[in-house]
Amino acid sequence: MATAMKQRPAETDLIQSKENQQQNMVLHVKNLEIFYGEKRAVNGISMDIEKNSVTALIGPSGCGKSTFLRSINRMNDLIPGARAEGEIIYDDLNILSEQINVVALRKEIGMVFQKPNPFPKSIYDNITHALKFAGIRKKSKLDEIVEESLQKAALWEEVKDRLHKSALSLSGGQQQRLCIARTIAMKPTVMLLDEPSSALDPISNAKVEDLIVELKKDYSIIIVTHNMQQASRISDKTAFFLSGDLIEYDITDTIFTNPSVKKTEEYISGRFG
Amino acid sequence: MNTRSKFDSHLKELKDMLMEMARKSENAIKESINALINQDIDKSNEIIQNDTIIDDLEHEINNKAIILIAKESPVARDLRKIIVALKISSEVERIADNAVNIAKSTVHIGKEKHIKEIVDIPIMMNLALEMLSDSLNAFLSEDVELAKTCAKKDDKVDEMYGKLIKELMGYVQKYPDHINQINQLAFVCRYIERIADHSTNIGEHVIYLVTGERYDLNA
Ligand SMILES: Nc1ncnc2c1ncn2[C@@H]1O[C@H](COP(=O)(O)OP(=O)(O)O)[C@@H](O)[C@H]1O
Ligand SMILES: [Mg+2]
């Protein structure tokens, strides 16, 4: 063993550790630019997103956080005039490429929005709707997934006795966790959350935050948040955006204790934005 | 545009309170040494009594810091400003305790004639005072280089301390009737040495405040 170690040139170690790093990444964003017509909303950003971790996107309104987030599962396709350049590499594929099957992509990269948007149907149907669409019809299988997703979304105990009641009868916080359960049911790899708890009361917010931290065991999570404390509490890495630029991207603890860029410091300490 | 001018003015107030406390402690140690030299028992008792004023100031600083943390959710440098104010106030409080300790020694020596003129202790004290003043000025102006100068002077204080203790112990046989006085003077040297240590710590806190990194000045 010792000789084998010795024989291996030092450079291979470096390359291997780099490969390891690559393996810990779920997304590689390279020179991503996003336009709405002539207007550029994201100015050529590059960043790697870690697997099984929470990445927070922060920055003042209009800096391009949602635009960036939506590009990751091609939701911007729905906006006329929106287009993206550069690359977002996921599983060796460029998400932005024409050849990507967008429906399949959105199953793997799910999204939860700011305002809970359950369908006006039962709790159960909210979760099974997309599953049925994806061809899962067996009742026992559906039941299993419903329970599992609601468990994971920390909602099961609260709704297990009223699965067939309308989702609209739930509180805002419960509705948001239902939307998260709905995303989980699709067994995604990445979950995109756009200010998921900004419309919630503090208790529901705390539950959603706990849930997000819990979920990173199974998923890679990217969350847009306006709440600095939330970003510092739940994320592992934080990216600070300003006017379409990625200003600083680092370990969250570093960003909130000792950021490198003055603008970041000014923003997180509430001096503008 | 500054959206947190109210918070900034609270941070400024916190700093002002701390400087006020520090000036009072600085004054107390100066007076304690003068009282030692002049064998001024009344002054020493006054120093001992007035320590509560400094303790109260430390309390006020703590309370203000806690409220600011609770209400303002400070981060990064704002947070360091508050944490460092807490840490420095505790160093300053201990510095003032050493003024009290020196005053107590003066009381213990009482009116007994000094075995020799007290010359070296004030010199050592001046060094410690310079360190304190440097570290406080470094805090005021957030000056890392000035904060670092404390370490050099601390080495000198330590050296003087070693020399003085040796000298004092040499007097034990020569003046067996003055053991108490010799002991008290040795204690005073120890108190001054501690004041220098606390000043060095203040310097370290200043470096942390400015850079966000821990720095061991004695390493
Ligand atoms: N659907 C759209 N059509 C045109 N411009 C848009 C659209 N959505 C966002 N923008 C513009 O793109 C920029 C970034 O917006 P957005 O990504 O929503 O920012 P954030 O989420 O950081 O608040 C803004 O200038 C915004 O006006
Ligand atoms: Mg947005």
Query: What is the fourth-level CATH superfamily of chain B?
Result: Phosphate transport system protein phou homolog 2, domain 2
Number of contiguous helices of chain A: 12
The CATH class of chain B, by name, is Mainly Alpha
Give a short account of the largest sheet of chain B.
Answer: none
Run of helices and strands of chain A: HHEEEHEEHEHHHHEHEHEEHH
Can you tell me the residue ranges of chain B where pLDDT is under 50 for at least 5 consecutive residues?
A: none
List the domain count of chain B as a whole number: 1
Describe the sheet with the most strands of chain A. Answer: 6 strands, mixed
- Let me know the number of strands of chain B: 0
What's the overall average pLDDT of chain B, rounded? 95
- Quaternary status of these chains? heterodimer
Q: At the third CATH level, what is the topology name of chain B?
A: Methane Monooxygenase Hydroxylase, Chain G, domain 1
Shape, per Cα inertia axes of chain A: globular
What structural class is derived from the secondary structure elements of chain A? Answer: alpha/beta
Q: Work out the largest interface and the residue count of each chain.
A: A-B, 14 and 15 residues
The strand count of chain A comes to 10
Look at the helices and sheets of chain B and give the structural class.
mainly alpha
How much is the average pLDDT of chain A? 91
Give the overall shape of chain B.
Answer: elongated
Q: Estimate percent helicity of chain A.
A: 40-55%
Subcellular location (chain B): Cytoplasm
Organism (chain B): Neobacillus rhizophilus
Protein name (chain B): Phosphate-specific transport system accessory protein PhoU
Function (chain B): Plays a role in the regulation of phosphate uptake.
